[in-house]
Amino acid sequence: MKKARLIRKIPGDDEDRLSTLPNCVLCYILSFLDTKYVVQTCVLSKRFKNLWSSLPYLNFDSTSFNKLFSFNKFVDRMLTLRDNSVRVDDFKFNRTGKISSKFLDKVMNYAMSHCVLRFNIHVEYNGFDHFPESSYSSESLKSFELKIHGELTKLPSFPELKVLHLASVRLAHSDLVLSCPCLMDLALIDCAAPKLDILNIDAPQLVKLTISAGCFLSVCKVVVSAPGLASFWYSGSHSLLLSILGELSSLEVVSIDVDRHHL
């Protein structure tokens, strides 16, 4: 005869403890989730019914969807139904496949118009020639990370920007100027510049400069005006034509890695 297992019920075990947490705690927990799954929490309880619409974090990832059409529709509907009175602290947008400039421009305009602080865009596509730059206006943006196989005809110059990471972008025109008075961390990763002759970096507060260059970026001249520069990292297949304006009394770390076959 089998012994019956006694299960002692813990007082308050049926209590919905998650719903009793303060909004700030719930928002922090949900900030680690893809926005798709955040919206799905609306069925958990009355407390969660509309919470998704007022979160200051947006994380859109197309890999969470079976079809890109469904992803586009979700993003469009989410931006329409979200509480417009709530600012966006963090905005992450990861999209595979072909994307239209109109749709991307809508995403960027929404982020910029809602006082975004940190903006991360990763887009992979084919047949896209020009990156929408109409949204290069924000008084709040602190960090901007852009990985996109498209062309930039001008560089962003956000007044409060402190971190700028550009990856896999194609820099157009013969001369480009990067002017960000508060910029402290700049990274150019595998950026192509077949037409670029001179890249001017004017950043008086710049502390860290990282350049990981392909063969295209190595053919242009990089002029840097950053008296407070403390760290410089360069790696590439070719040597870099670099011009530093002024003294670098703050420089502490220098790392240069060049393919010896191209020296």
UniProtKB/TrEMBL annotation:
Cited SUPFAM superfamilies: F-box domain, L domain-like
Pfam families noted in UniProt: F-box (PF00646)
Top-level division of the source organism's lineage: Eukaryota
Residues annotated as domain F-box: 15-68
InterPro entries: F-box-like_dom_sf (IPR036047), F-box_AtFBL13-like (IPR053781), F-box_dom (IPR001810), F-box_SCFL_complex_component (IPR053197)
Protein name: F-box/LRR-repeat protein 13
Native source species: Abeliophyllum distichum
